[in-house]
Each structure stands twice: as structure tokens, then as C-alpha cells.
Specification:
Strand order of the largest sheet: 3-4-7-6-8-9
Low-confidence stretches: 85-89
Number of strands: 10
Largest sheet: 6 strands, mixed
Shape: globular
Helix content: 10-25%
Radius of gyration: 16 Å
Length: 241
């Protein structure tokens, strides 16, 4: 983990962290295992390092073969650690928890991962915002889901935007060649989040050696296809992180 890249916008009652290459490659539906490295162990060690037991976590399973990319789910309070991931038939683009001590884990490799938290309603979302989701205005719809499902007021919501690939390596053609972070920041503002409630980790995964980058893997610049991860979990009010 890189200290200066960790979220700082959330209160102490929320654990919010991002891993780096030093924490190892994280398992996904695309890269579940590796004979040379125990990816599940990497994830467990990362969670333990930030004070989260794997049995208290659910991993968001993102797929890229859907008809749309606005699949939002409320995590089952009884499904913590459900294979530390969703069942094979249950992909999602974002998940929400309303109970404490239930972490959401999201592996990333260039896409934006957003941690979205309403401290008034105590509702926590982790949202995957890649190109597909961004083209469908996923940041806006993520906030709208929190409004309709949990009566959240956008004016109260805090947002952290993860490291992601920059426009120089991955320009979005449908958004005037701008980058994922810039476009999703704009969409969160459109959804009613106030500027002072948004924090952006200004890290380009394509040019930063401490993060895995899918675009660099495809170009042959990274030897292995890897994922880093973000995680977020609400604690009991007043409970130290």
C-alpha cells in the first residue's frame, strides 16, 4: 500500500484502502489462480493488514459480457465471505452494504473504483466504473441507486475515486478523448455530489510502477495480467479503525 494514495475523505468509522503491487496480484473471475503465486492468500494478507477478516468481506464480481453495466446489488448481511466473492451467476457493477463490519472488495486494473459513502444514512457503496459503465453514466446511476434504494441525499455523500488509467494511454472516444477519472468526477458532480466531498487519487496506473495495468499488459509492458484492489467497510460508530 502507498500511504499517500490512501483515501482520507472518510471518517474514522470507515476503513477504506487501496492495495499496490507490493501486496501482490489479486484474484478475479478472469484471473482466479496462478501456479506461481497464491492470489487468494495475497487478498487475505491485504485485508488482514487493514484490519479486515476475510470472513467479513464480499468481493464484487465484475463481468464484461453484459447487455448493460448498471447492475447494482445490496449485499446480503448473511453473505459475508460468500466464497469471498459472488456466486458465479451473480455479477455486479456495484454493491451496497448497510451493516457494519461487512467489507466490499473490488479488484481493478485501470478502471475507476469509487467508494461512495453516506455518513448520514450509513450506507456504503463500492462501484466499478470502467469504460462500459462510464459510457452508461455509471457514476450518476450509482448515486441514483443510493437515492432510490436508501433515501440518500447526494449533498451528504462522500466519494473517493481510485487510481486509474489516464487519458494519454486510454482516451475515451465518446468523451472528447478525456480520461476515466476526469469523466467520472464530472458525472459525480452531475449527480449532485458537492466538489468538496470528492477526493481523487491522482495516479495513472499505466505510468505508475506500483499499480497493475491491463492496458500495459496488453501492450506487452507488464509480464503478467494483474489486479490491485480497493476495500471499504463501515465500523460501529466511534469504533477505531
Amino acid at each position: 500500500m502507498i500511504a499517500e494514495h490512501q483515501p482520507t475523505i472518510f471518517p474514522p468509522s470507515v476503513i477504506a484502502k487501496v492495495s499496490s503491487v507490493a501486496n501482490g496480484r489479486m484474484p478475479t473471475a478472469i484471473v482466479p489462480t496462478d501456479p506461481e503465486q497464491d492470489l487468494a492468500a495475497n487478498r487475505e494478507q491485504f485485508l488482514a493488514a487493514v484490519g479486515i477478516h476475510p470472513d467479513h468481506a464480499t468481493q464484487i464480481r465484475v463481468t464484461f459480457d453484459a447487455d448493460h453495466y448498471r447492475r447494482y446489488r445490496v449485499a446480503d448481511v448473511n453473505a459475508k465471505g460468500e466464497g469471498i466473492g459472488l456466486a458465479p451467476g451473480e455479477p455486479a457493477d456495484a454493491m451496497v452494504v448497510t451493516d457494519t463490519n461487512h467489507a466490499l472488495v473490488l479488484p481493478l486494473a485501470d478502471c475507476v473504483g469509487a467508494i461512495v459513502y453516506d455518513p448520514t444514512k450509513r450506507v456504503l457503496m463500492v462501484s466499478h466504473l470502467g469504460r462500459h459503465s462510464t459510457e452508461e453514466h455509471g457514476a450518476v446511476h450509482s448515486v441514483r441507486f443510493m437515492q432510490t434504494a436508501h433515501d440518500c441525499n447526494p449533498a451528504n455523500i462522500l466519494v473517493w475515486i481510485s487510481p486509474a488509467v489516464g487519458a494519454a494511454s486510454y482516451p475515451l472516444q465518446k468523451f472528447d478523448e478525456r480520461g476515466l477519472q476526469e469523466v467520472n468526477l464530472e458525472q459525480f458532480l452531475e449527480a449532485g455530489i458537492t466538489p468538496e466531498h470528492i477526493e481523487v487519487a491522482e495516479v495513472d496506473t499505466a505510468s505508475h510502477d506500483d499499480y497493475y495495468s491491463h492496458s500495459q499488459f496488453l501492450k506487452g509492458n507488464d509480464a503478467k495480467r494483474g489486479r490491485f484492489a480497493i476495500v471499504a467497510m463501515m465500523l460501529e460508530q466511534g469504533e477505531p479503525a
